[in-house]
């Protein structure tokens, strides 16, 4: 398993991945069936923009040459919001509950801490998405608000939960010393970075 930054050449595979997740009957992402409509050329352009930005990253997880998970994260475009980045992620159904999401989110936190820019990561997750809530809490994300009945899915209204985690910079502009953290630490004590799990395909 390899986690790397996406390249424009990944556009077709990323589109196929997102369209598969968007088509799942149990909705977990904002896009519904048929709603991801970017062409490969447009997606290549998007990926180039991520690659060029200093406060954005598009990560993919690759197994045997196939993309099995994606994570996109971008910071604000204004001086006042450059340090604050929002992300979304998804793992292919057949690869869930094998530690892929943990490894991918861990890589995002590393990237953000090393960026010298990002001080805060945030996201919105639906209240019924127990697996995602578990993953984010495990990484020290805390609930900051709830957008009540903001979404209408499969015939019912659903709350969106706003979560965030603040970071300690380790790149340019970083605090002078980097705290050594235990996985069980809460955000108030320091950051949480669980050890990367061994995954199928990992080299010993
Ligand atoms: C959320 C998601 C990214 C997690 O990825 P993943 O590869 O399955 O994550 P991991 O295997 O690393 O970890 C999953 C954790 O959730 C736990 N989990 C799984 N289902 C759960 C449930 N119903 N309730 C509580 N915890 C659950 C697992 O036990 C595991 O916990 P652990 O790490 O403490 O053992 C993945 O489920 C996914 O892509 N879902 C569809 C898209 C989505 O929901 N994206 C997020 C939108 S905000």
Task: Give descriptors for this structure.
single chain; 204 residues; alpha+beta; Aminopeptidase; seven-stranded mixed beta sheet; 29% strand; binds coenzyme A
Helix count from the secondary structure assignment:
4
How much is the average pLDDT?
Answer: 87
- What is the beta-strand fraction? 25-35%
Reported by name, the CATH topology is Aminopeptidase
How would you name the CATH homologous superfamily?
Answer: Gcn5-related N-acetyltransferase (GNAT)
The N- to C-terminal Cα distance equals 12 Å
Evaluate the radius of gyration. Answer: 17 Å
Helix content: 10-25%
Annotation, overall tally of beta strands: 7
CATH architectural category:
3-Layer(aba) Sandwich
Q: Which secondary-structure class do the elements indicate?
A: alpha+beta
Instruction: Report the bound ligands by name, code or SMILES.
Output: coenzyme A
| Strand line-up across the major sheet | 1-2-3-4-5-7-6
Describe the largest sheet: 7 strands, mixed
Contiguous runs where pLDDT drops below 50 for at least 5 residues: 173-204
Taken in chain order, the helices and strands follow as: EHHEEEHEHEE
- Gross morphology: globular
The CATH first-level class comes to: Alpha Beta
Number of structurally distinct domains: 1
Structure summarized in a few sentences:
With 204 residues, the chain is α+β, with helices and mostly antiparallel strands. Helices cover 25% and strands 29% of the residues.
């Amino acid at each position: 398993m390899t986690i790397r930054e996406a390249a424009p050449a990944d556009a077709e595979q990323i589109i196929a991945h997102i369209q598969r997740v968007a088509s799942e009957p149990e909705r977990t992402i904002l896009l519904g069936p048929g709603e991801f409509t970017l062409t490969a050329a447009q997606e290549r352009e998007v990926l180039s923009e991520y690659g060029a930005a200093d406060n954005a990253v598009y990560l993919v997880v690759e197994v045997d040459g196939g993309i099995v998970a994606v994570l996109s994260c971008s910071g604000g475009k204004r001086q006042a919001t450059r340090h604050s980045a929002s992300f979304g992620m998804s793992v292919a159904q057949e690869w869930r509950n094998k530690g892929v999401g943990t490894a991918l989110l861990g890589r995002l936190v590393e990237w953000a801490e090393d960026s010298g820019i990002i001080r805060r990561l945030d996201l919105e997750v639906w209240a019924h998405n127990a697996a995602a809530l578990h993953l984010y809490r495990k990484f020290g994300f805390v609930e900051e608000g709830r957008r009540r009945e903001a979404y209408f899915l499969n015939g019912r209204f659903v709350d969106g939960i706003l979560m965030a985690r603040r970071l300690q910079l380790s790149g340019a502009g970083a605090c002078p010393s980097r705290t050594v953290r235990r996985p069980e630490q809460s955000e108030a004590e320091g950051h949480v970075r669980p050890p990367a799990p061994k995954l199928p395909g990992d080299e010993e």
